[in-house]
Write a structure and sequence with these properties.
Layout (H helix, E strand, L loop, with lengths): L1 H7 L2 H12 L5 H8 L3 H13 L3 E6 L2 E6 L2 H10 L5 H18 L10 E7 L3 H9 L1 H8 L1 E4 L7 E6 L6 E11 L3 E8 L10 E10 L2 E9 L4 H24 L10 H6 L1
Antiparallel strand pairs: 1-2, 3-9, 4-5, 5-6, 6-7, 7-8, 8-9
Length: about 260
Amino acid sequence: MDSVFRALADPTRRLLLDRLREQNGQTLRELCERLDMTRQSATQHLDLLQQANLVTVVRRGRERLHYLNPAPIHEIEERWISEFDKPRLRAISAIKNQAEEYAMTDAPTSVPTYVYVTYIHAGAEQVWRALTDADLTARYWGHANVSDWQPGSSWEHRRVDGSGKVDVVGKVLKAEPPTRLVITFEDAPDAEPPREPSVVTFLVEPYQDIVRLTVTHENLANEAMYQGISQGWPAVLANLKSLLETGDILPQAPWEMGRATHS
């Protein structure tokens, strides 16, 4: 965490993170325009933020889009806050957010793209299998992701509680094993009202003995969905990382930890 704290210690770098929090997925030019900063200066600060894993870069053609990566801040929160005074801090945060929401009622809102990056001590083929094998997803996700994973095929997010209920469906847009999987996330067929599907991209990048896994979730329906996946993806990926690195999932389902804190 030393590199994270060093990166956060500089007010200019905190301002860059604030700008990405307000509008994620900006190019270097867009960040420089908003901050009245030279490209050289912005690049130096962004390099340090990337080294601390606080910012990740996603290439789109010739453009390099910068995204705020919440993983290190999530780890700090889990280590320094969750075990101490999380319920009270959540209540204070809820009051603050509600006040800000009322103050900005008339302002136009946009739902940002969600990006999460984690590093896993495993091979690319192992990570790919964990993402596409129904039995493995059932272990770390609590749902079996069922498909033949061919472009154009459908996939289902099935419960493993014996009900066989499908909570999410979608289509496979791209499958390039073991490095890239793009799928749509759609409500179950009986969901009302239906909404336009969001899109999830899994990018698996090998680095010698480890893998960098980047999950990008785009075309989110609303802020509530963004908040939901902001809690869901870190929990699912933490369980995936534990399974691949230790052979077992975490002792407690990460998505249930918040509930336990309040009890």
